[in-house]
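Workshop exercise sheet. Pairs work together: one partner reads the sequence aloud, the other fills in the structure field after running the prediction. Swap roles for the next sheet.
Pair: D.N. / O.F.
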Amino acid sequence: MIDAVGCITSLQVPHRLADAILRDSQTKDGIEFRKSDKGKALNTVSQQNATALYQVCPSALIFGMWDSTGPKGGLGAKFERAIVSEVVGVGASVGDLLRGVRRDPLEVRAAVKVLKGVDKNWSLALANAKGAVPPSKVNHSSVPFPEQRDEKTENNLYSGATIEYAEQVTTLSLIVLRRLRFPMNGSVGAPRDIAGRTVLAALGLCAATLAFEAGMGLRSRCLLWPDGPMNWELLAKPGEPPQTFTLTSDDAVSLLKQSAEAAKKESLTWEEKPIELVPQQKLVDLVRLSQLEATKEASQQAS
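Structure field:
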């Protein structure tokens, strides 16, 4: 039996809509996601033709996406992230803390091997199979931060830090959004392009504002809470001072709803109901074997 992982969305997987978890899932009627109508649309999207991605997963246009494991490989669609948020620690003191990882929601283990196919497909490898590789080679499993090694003692050094306080800077690039076009049925239109970009800008502001007001939990015993409102600066024209404004979560949600309704008038809509996928059997098996491997690792550490 496999312990339930639960529902995972495109906001949780590391690579948005192009993530391996979604790639290796299927529709409820058994069609592989990338071979379904909505999955195939990823093969044609670009900055000049972002309509299909807006319709299925508009957050990917804000947070960025690279379809590097799709049928086009490294030539797959690339969308630069339009929003970046950085937290800088002030008065930092480096200590010996446990390192972190980029966590895989499925907790896939490197000890479970797979075989890569020539068509970018993969299958679970039998014991001692020739050519077997870890799941990271097909974009599954967690990625640990690099370790530093003491050359004198040959011991691993785990880096961490404590800080006096933190400063957060969030940047929403309107330049990145202006590169996006939203053609419809072969026709292009400036009003629709502007409406789509406005929705994405509102989506970015909404995401940043809601996250800011909720506080930030970086890891155990590292919780950050704002000591004042979030202030925005709009750089409208070169040489002019920035226009400052604040935005509450209620204001941000209202702005997003209004811009989405305006985009509908330009025939630009998105899926209002979740697109539900279920894992392919090979992905279920990979997770099951990884859970068994985790049990073995825990037993070895306890003994």
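Discussion prompt: Residues 233 and 239 are 14 Å apart (CA to CA). What would you look at next?
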